[in-house]
Amino acid sequence: MREERTVRTDHKAMIKRFLLCRIHSFSIYESRTG
Fold this sequence. Notes:
- The protein is mainly α and 34 residues long.
- The chain has one domain (1-34).
- It has 1 helix and no strands.
- The protein is rod-shaped, with a radius of gyration of 15 Å.
- The N and C termini lie far apart (49 Å).
């Protein structure tokens, strides 16, 4: 059970990182095209 929980949190953190990266690159793209 403990392992499952860790995996779940890891997955959430991965999604969060992925979304942050996408938002960051998107804002860079927007400022470039401005």
